[in-house]
């Protein structure tokens, strides 16, 4: 189960970035939202020089899986 509808449509890094920021908006508190927004931005800076299409797809897949895990983690706590 994806954290938000549309995860299956994410193919490019910019789409992933927007998708993950929308996921952050669904988190329960402003502090948690800001923490994960910062983590998303940092991750994009770290991987900004990646040019291997296969590696980019691996990163996208893993980021969506991680977002799913985080969304489920906070969903259970509420």
Automatic annotation (TrEMBL):
Pfam (any one): Complex1_LYR
TM segment ranges: none
Domain Complex 1 LYR protein: start-end pairs: 11-68
PANTHER family attached to this UniProt entry: LYR MOTIF-CONTAINING PROTEIN 9
Similarity section: Belongs to the complex I LYR family. LYRM9 subfamily.
Designated name of the protein: LYR motif-containing protein 9
